[in-house]
Write a structure and sequence with these properties.
alpha/beta; 2 domains; seven-stranded mixed beta sheet; disordered N terminus; 52% helix; single chain; Rossmann fold
Length: 471
C-alpha cells in the first residue's frame, strides 16, 4: 500500500513538472484558443492574446509560482508534520496532488470550477463564477480576462489548504516572505538612521512647510521603488547595502517616474484637517511593507494624521502580498532587532497598534477578481469606510490594474475618466509598471518610451505616482 501511495504521489509531482503523457496533446489544443496579436486598445487584458504580457505571465510566471509551492510542500513536509500534527503529512500529499492538477489545468486552460471550502469568500466567488456564465464570459485561464483569471488561480491555491483540517492555516509563501523581510532589515538600517538624524520621527521638532513636503515626497518615493521588489515578479533581493544607498539618493530615479504627482500628494498629506485619516491599501511584504509603515509613522508624527488604516489581504495572495501575520512579524522583527534605532521604532509602531492609531483591516474584496468600480455595489461597507479617508494610497501593480479595470487604454486617456464611478476619496496610486496598462500619461512621453524601451510597460523599471483629488 505504501508503494502505491508513493507511486501516486510521484505521478502527481511528474504531472506538476509537465511530464504527464497527455500534457503535450492538451497543450496543442490550447494553442488553438490563442489569438496571434497584441491586446487591442480599449480591451481588457487577457492571456488569449499571444503577443501580450498577460500571455507570457500565465504561460511562464504563474506555473513557476505553483511549482515553488509544490516544492515547498515536498521539501518541508516533515517540518509541517511536526508543526501541525501526525496526520498533516497525508494532507500535504493531498494538497500536492491538487496543486499538481491545478498546474495542469492552468497550462491547458481548463474551465474554472466552483469552490467547496468553508472560507468566508467561497459563496461570493461561486456567485461571481455563475454571474460570468450568465453574461457569457469565458471561464478559463487563457480566454478569460487576465485580472479574473490570475485572482482565481491564487484563490484556487488557497482552496488546496482551506479544504484541509490540520494544514488549513498554512501560508505557502511564508518562507519566501520571511527571507525577503530578513534582507529588508539590512536595507532599512541606514534609512532609519536618516530618519533620526533628520528628526523626522520626533513629534516635537517643527519643520518648515517646504521641508515637510519634501520629506513626505522622499518617503513616498521610498514606498514607490520598494514596490519593484515583488516575489511573484522579481524574486531576488541581493546586495542590500547597494539598495539602501540607492534609496538614500532616491531622486536619482526621478527620470524613471513617467507620471509624478508626488508634490500634490505631499501637499495633501500636510493639509490641516479635523480627524485626518489615511488609508494604505498594501501590496508586498518585506521592504515595501516596512517603507509603508515608515511613511505612516511620518504622517502621524509630522502631518497631523490621527489614524492610519492598513488594508492587507485576508488570505495568502500573489506570493508576496501582506497578510496580517506578515505585518505583525514585521513590527516584531523591528522591535527585537539589535540594530541602531530599530527597537525604539518597533516599540513605537506596536504602541500605535495598541492605541488604535494604526488599524489593520483584511476585507474580502481585496482578494476578489473584480475591478474597484464594482466595490460600492458589491461591498458597500468597505466603500463607505474608504469614503471617510482624507487620502487613500493604493500600492502596487495589481491595485492599479483594479483601479483602471485592467484595460489596455490609450496612455493619454485621463485617469479621472478611467476611474469612472470609483471616487470614494482623494487617492494616489504608487506603482512600478509590471503590466501593460497605463493612463493619464503625456502622449509624447509614451511615444518616446515606446521607441527607446519597448518593454517599459512591464519591466518594473518605470514607475508612477498618480493622484486624483476628490470630486
Amino acid at each position: 500500500m505504501w508503494k502505491i501511495r508513493k507511486l501516486s504521489w510521484m505521478m502527481s509531482i511528474n504531472k506538476a513538472l509537465g511530464c504527464d503523457p497527455c500534457f503535450m496533446l492538451e497543450k496543442e489544443w490550447l494553442m488553438k484558443l490563442l489569438i496571434d496579436s497584441e491586446t487591442p486598445l480599449n480591451t481588457r487584458l487577457s492571456a488569449k492574446y499571444k503577443r501580450s504580457f498577460a500571455y507570457l505571465s500565465m504561460k511562464d510566471r504563474a506555473p513557476l509560482a505553483l511549482t515553488k509551492v509544490i516544492d515547498y510542500l515536498v521539501r518541508d513536509k516533515r517540518g509541517i508534520e511536526k508543526t501541525y500534527g501526525p496526520g498533516a503529512i497525508e494532507e500535504v500529499k493531498c494538497a500536492i496532488g491538487e496543486l499538481s492538477q491545478l498546474k495542469n489545468h492552468l497550462q491547458t486552460s481548463k474551465p474554472f470550477e466552483n469552490f467547496i471550502s468553508k472560507d468566508p469568500d467561497t459563496t461570493t466567488w461561486n456567485q461571481h463564477l455563475e454571474a460570468r456564465e450568465l453574461h457569457n464570459e469565458v471561464n478559463n485561464y487563457y480566454e478569460s480576462d487576465w485580472l479574473f483569471a490570475e485572482c482565481y488561480l491564487y484563490r484556487r491555491i488557497r482552496e488546496s489548504f482551506a479544504t484541509k483540517k490540520l494544514i488549513c492555516s498554512i501560508d505557502p509563501f511564508s518562507v519566501q516572505k520571511t527571507q525577503v523581510l530578513d534582507s529588508a532589515l539590512d536595507i532599512m538600517e541606514p534609512m532609519f538612521c536618516y530618519l533620526y538624524q533628520s528628526k523626522l520621527m520626533d513629534k516635537q521638532t517643527v519643520l518648515p512647510k517646504d521641508d515637510l513636503v519634501n520629506e513626505c515626497v522622499r518617503l513616498l518615493k521610498w514606498c514607490l521603488w520598494a514596490n519593484k521588489i515583488d516575489l511573484s515578479f522579481k524574486p531576488d533581493l541581493q546586495e542590500g547595502g547597494n539598495i539602501a544607498d540607492a534609496f538614500l539618493k532616491i531622486d536619482q530615479w526621478d527620470n524613471k517616474i513617467v507620471i509624478d504627482n508626488s508634490e500634490k500628494v505631499g501637499l495633501c498629506c500636510i493639509e490641516p484637517g479635523y480627524k485626518k485619516v489615511v488609508d494604505i491599501v498594501m501590496d508586498n511584504a518585506g521592504l515595501e511593507m516596512l517603507c509603508d509603515m515608515t511613511l505612516a509613522d511620518f504622517l502621524i508624527s509630522k502631518c497631523g494624521v490621527d489614524l492610519v488604516n492598513f488594508h492587507v489581504k485576508p488570505i495568502p495572495w500573489f506570493v508576496s502580498d501582506v497578510i496580517i501575520r506578515d505585518f505583525m512579524q514585521g513590527v516584531e522583527s523591528i522591535a527585537k532587532s539589535e540594530r541602531k534605532h530599530f527597537k525604539n521604532i518597533g516599540l513605537r509602531w506596536q504602541h500605535y497598534l495598541d492605541k488604535g492609531v494604526w488599524k489593520l483591516h483584511a476585507d474580502t474584496y481585496w482578494c476578489l477578481g473584480l475591478p474597484y468600480q464594482l466595490m460600492e455595489e458589491t461591498d458597500p461597507s468597505l466603500y463607505k469606510k474608504l469614503s471617510r479617508s482624507s487620502l487613500i494610497i493604493f500600492k502596487g501593480d495589481l491595485n492599479y490594474r483594479k483601479l483602471v479595470r485592467d484595460i489596455n487604454w490609450e496612455p493619454s486617456t485621463p485617469f479621472e475618466k478611467v476611474l469612472d464611478c470609483f471616487r470614494p476619496a482623494p487617492l494616489v496610486t504608487l506603482r512600478t509598471l509590471k503590466a501593460a496598462t497605463v493612463c493619464g500619461m503625456n502622449e509624447q512621453k509614451a511615444e518616446e518610451l515606446d521607441e527607446n524601451d519597448p518593454n517599459w510597460w512591464t519591466s518594473g523599471n518605470y514607475a508612477l505616482i498618480q493622484y486624483c483629488p476628490d470630486v
